[in-house]
Amino acid sequence: MTAITFLLFTAAIGFGAARWLHLPSIPFLILGGVVVSALAPLPADFLEDALVLGLTVMVFVAGIELSPGRFRFQRNAAFQVGLAQFVVLGAIGMGAALLMGFNWETGAYLALALTASSTLVVVRLLQRERQLFEPFGRLVTGVLLFQDLLVVLLIPVVIGLPRGWAAVGQGVFGTLGLVGLAWVVLRWIAPFAVRRLAFDEESLLLVVLTILFSFLGLSFLFDLPLVSGAFLAGVSLSAFPVNALVRGQLNSLSDFFNALFFTALGAFLTLPSLLELFQVGMLVLIVVVVTPPLVAVIAERAGFSARPAIASGLLLAQTSEFSLVVALQGVVLGHVTPEVFTIIAFVTVVTMVLTPFLATDRVVWKLMRIHPFKRSDSFADPPENHILLLGCGRNGITLLELLIFGPHPVVVVDDDPALIEHIRESGIPALRGDVSDLEVLRSAGADRAKVVISTIRRKEDNGPLLSMKGDVPVLARAFNVEDGEWIRARGGHPISYADAAAEDFLNWFHEEWLPEGTGGTTAGRAE
Amino acid sequence: MESSLLTDLGIILVAATLVVVAARIIRIPSIVGYILAGLIAGPALGLVEVTEGLHLAAEIGIILLLFLVGLELSLGKIREVGGIALLVGLLQVVVTGTGVAAIAWAFGLSGGDVLFLGVALTFSSTVVVVKLLDQLRALDSRHGRLSVGVLLVQDLVVVVVLTFVAGLSGGVELSALEVITDLARAFGGMALLLLAAGIAARFILPRVFAWAGSSQETTFVWSLSWCFLLVLGSEWLHLSVELGAFIAGVAIAQLPFNHDLRRRVHPLMNFFVAVFFVTLGVQMELGAAFAAWPLVLTLIVATLLLKPPLIARLLRSRGEGPGTALRSGLTLGQTSEFSFILAALALANGLIDEDMLSVVAAVGLVTMGVSSFSILHADGLVEAVRKRGLLPLLTGASKTEAEEGDEAQDPGTRGHIVVVGMNSLGRRIVRDLAEAGEEVLAIDTDPDKLKDLPCRTLLGNADYLSLLEEAELKEAGLLVSALHIEDANRLLAYRAESFGIPCVIHAFDQSMERELEELGVRHLVNSRSAGIEKIADELKELGVFGE
């Protein structure tokens, strides 16, 4: 009881520190574990149990979240970006490992550890910024899940290599067998069990865990790593509605075991030497320097505009919790030394901590300035009597499709070079630039327009426009009540999509829903 | 990477699932299924042995269960039933203990065995009762609170008993001074624990958890950490882990995220409690009990038939309604898992032999199994007893009192509108619906977003079915989701379809629309097209856009 209380208490401090600093919790949990083990070593048996259980649950839940439907419209882009990042970082990682003096075997583990990005960190950041369901959010999620899949499929190969090609073949064959079984469970067994048998929550949890342990048993039987069984068990439950129904049951198990896992992992680490710290630094540099441009280029090639492509690259610039899984697997099998395990763990900790600082609007904007697109930042003659559209993201494009059929010419300003290029190709005058820059606004004729429509998310960016607009009406999108008041106070017309949607709902409610009943309220209608 | 714990857990969970799912078909309670699974995996097939890791997992199950009870019962609710529970709990222990000892004496057992059985079989099972009351969502009912109160009083007596038994080694008795010292340490420890928890609950925990705010993960891990810290404190003070977990739960029961936390702890508790019950079955050695079947049968019958009316009469004498009194009696009509622990401890100290351990195990297993049915069907049993005019006999109530119903059920709400997601859209919808005279229930995971709304609110995550049950979604007239979370929206549409409740979903992305329509969503709210229409209207008003 003492050991588990210590780990949980350490995890609680880790979560607190992460919340205080607005950073991901995983690095703090690992560092907390390091501190605890330095102060009071925990029993090895207990740590091993915590690691194995935590690892199993984490990988299982990652499999459940695979849900390919979530990124169906970005499937090709996700495949291209994910594969490119996997191959390039894997190759560079292997090269770096060999240059650092490691052998091929260790190199394979280091390379595999660098190839994937962290689902837990990136999804949390996307959720925080409300970008999870934006197209680029879906692209990033797709890349992460594709990479997780690749890592899990390659683990049997990497751990089989030291035992020869026969072991590799056996691993691959066994994995494919489990993939086939996962497909059968996904298509027929899980939907039948979960939907038709209508289990209560307790029985549903039991059934889900039985599926997990059955896959674990089979992976043991086929001499496959535990993570393969756990991940594919999760995949077998990843179709809707099964995944949605079990998510509630597994959330708390996942939170509990993840907290124990990462803290126990920290307690398992040795403190790195100076040489190892240098090696950590080199590998961090590779991940942070190579990933953003690589992902950005591939994403743009796959049809994304510059801003989301760069944002995707910055978001993916860290190693994954699966890197820890790979390293742990290697150290337990004796294929890599505890020191290499420590290197991989510290690369993961550092890159995870760096991500929230790198994946910010400010860094995206700075990188956009060095984007190699041809720049054309002003019109020779500022336009007049036009509709000026500031910001042409997803919402802006839909709006643009409406405006171009109106009686007035439309001019677009956006900071995304690829997007501007695309709009120009459609014959619409467009200017690349910062919408909060007065020069850009003047050049776009903001003070001579019939109307200016701003879809910019940060209200402060509308400040210069509202200060120089003169008599020109400005319709500015307000994302909450406070934004609306701020815009109105400066002479703009706030447009709240939420209010518009609420009005749409209420129209339906009063005109279509209530008249069907008799009482004038929903309760009356129910009677 | 292999782990014996993982293998053992695998065997336990697969066995539990097979038996529980099969048992479900013939309506056998899951607890009985778990113990049966344990008997099959342990004594019958020898697949599992209880290792240190499994023991810890089982103990976590009890801790989480009692933590949940604490979360359910705030200080006010405990105070309400505290006096009655204390009196009835103590009296019941004395009377049942004497009765069991008399039976044992009648069967010619030795003085030591008579005393041991009298003590071991007098208590009721906290884990079984709480688990089933929780399953029935009756922890907060009058009979639920009374039963839990009595069980907690018994837990305190258990602490005293364990202090004695642990000190009795090889028949060497403790001196009077040692007894007083141990008891003073136990009660002093409890006072210290209560004081620490009280100070934390009053001055520290509300501020700390308010800071954690909307981060569900942080709140969850902090709460568990707080629970385990108190459990550890409880252990250090030689108190039961159950008591520490219960006090930890009560200390944060008044905080606003209490209900959400309960929903989140629930699946974790279900997992570990399953391990607890299966390992209970695994540890059973029933061989000698078959040889002593007349004694075992008599003790079982006495526990099942005499304990419930005894408790009912005691409660009735303290003014509880006859129905409530009998329900409580039926709820407490079994022996406790504590009897196994006590028997193991007594065996280790040479106070009893293995045959006695087997007798205790058999009585425990059967009474837990049978009482699971009576707890789950308590309402039906009370009604049947009432109709046959037996309520006065069993509870000591007069005929007139027996005919009156008690524990009035909350009629609940019908036709209300459940709105999930208090973003700008959700809050506006809630305000407008409330203004239009609708009865609205607003749900969100962030307590700040539920502030200042003109309707009832519920804090929690819509992924949990228990949240929707608490929102009485099955009785609702309409479900509205304003969430900007695709997965949650799909799940809500699916749940609404399963419950036959019309729903409106925020389809913020066109790619979701088809799937939501297939799930029978009555109306899709598309904020983007609504916003663009709004801009078009504004442009028309400004005269820059055609009619």
Please supply descriptive tags for the structure shown above.
heterodimer; A: 527 residues; mainly alpha; 23 helices; 6 strands; B: 547 residues; 24 helices
Strand-helix topology:
The complex is a heterodimer of chains A (527) and B (547).
Chain A: H1 2-21, H2 25-39, H3 44-64, H4 75-99, H5 104-115, H6 119-128, H7 135-160, H8 165-196, H9 201-221, H10 226-235, H11 242-268, H12 274-301, H13 306-315, H14 321-333, H15 338-358, H16 361-369, E1 387-390, H17 394-403, E2 410-414, H18 417-425, E3 430-432, H19 438-443, E4 451-454, H20 463-468, E5 474-477, H21 481-489, E6 493-495, H22 497-513, H23 522-526
Parallel strand pairs in A: 1-2, 1-4, 2-3, 4-5, 5-6
Chain B: H1 4-25, H2 30-44, H3 52-72, H4 75-106, H5 111-120, H6 126-135, H7 142-167, H8 176-212, H9 216-236, H10 241-251, H11 258-282, H12 287-291, H13 293-317, H14 322-331, H15 337-348, H16 354-376, H17 378-387, H18 391-395, H19 399-403, E1 417-420, H20 424-435, E2 440-444, E3 456-459, H21 465-470, E4 478-481, H22 486-499, E5 503-506, H23 513-518, E6 523-525, H24 527-542
Parallel strand pairs in B: 1-2, 1-4, 2-3, 4-5, 5-6
